[in-house]
Amino acid sequence: MYENMVDVLIYLYENYLDGESQPPVDQDVLETELSQAGFAKGEIAQALHWLDELASRMESTDYPPRAIAAMRVYTDAECHKLDLDARGLLLFLEQGGILDPLSRELVVDRAVAIEQDAVSVDELKWIVLLVLMNRPGRESALSQMEDLVYGDPPVYLH
After folding, report:
1. Interval 87-134: pLDDT, tens
2. Per-residue b/e over 18-37, b at no fewer than 16 CB within 10 Å?
3. Comparing C-alpha atoms, which of 113, 94, 114, 112 is closest to residue 102?
4. Which of 24, 52, 80, 151 could form a cystine bridge with 29, CB 3.0-4.6 A?
5. Has residue 16 got a pLDDT over 70?
6. CA-based nearest residue to 54, from 148, 151, 133
7. Is the pLDDT of residue 79 over 50?
8. Residue 125 carries which DSSP code?
9. In the chain, count of helices (H) and strands (E)?
10. C-alpha distances in Å from residue 136, one per residue of 49, 53, 90, 103, 139
């Protein structure tokens, strides 16, 4: 049995969303497959709802325009969900050009939407990957993020 709904998202990405194969067209068939893979019905429903919300957010204009020199200040709720390491990762990704301000806002929105107390750095990396996958024109950033997710851990110099 898997631990949380992020595991469902990872399963979907690795099996369908990376472009190699298509998910079943019928949602009932997909839910049955996920259930047979060991996911609970609640986790499956949350993950599919999360993906639907991500898709609807892609068309939204509720996010701020691209502010190049703006500093992101996190709310208390966001700080509770995303610890210092997670927020540091977002800053690192933004400074490295992997996340633009709009992508960062989508990542924060989708991280806060996950129904668990906190989002780990590893889970946040998958959220970034899913957001970038849904952003047209961000293919290079997606490729860089895949390298971070699937590659060897970076070596930090002190």
Report:
1. 999 999 999 999 998 899 999 999 999 988 999 999 999 999 999 988
2. eeeeeeeeeeeebbebbeee
3. 94
4. 24
5. yes
6. 133
7. yes
8. H
9. 8, 0
10. 21, 17, 20, 11, 7
Residue 91: Cβ-neighbour burial (10 angstroms; 0-12, 13-18, 19+): middle
End-to-end CA separation in angstroms for the chain: 39
**What's the pLDDT score for residue 123?**
94
SS3 of residue 2 by DSSP: coil
Could you tell me the two tokens for 19? 């472009």
Q: Is the pLDDT of residue 61 over 90?
A: no
Is 1's pLDDT higher than 60? no
pLDDT of residue 135: 86
3-state per-residue secondary structure call for 57-107: HHCCCCCCCCCCCCCCCCCHHHHHHCCHHHHHHHHHHHHCCCCCHHHHHHH
pTM (2 d.p.): 0.81
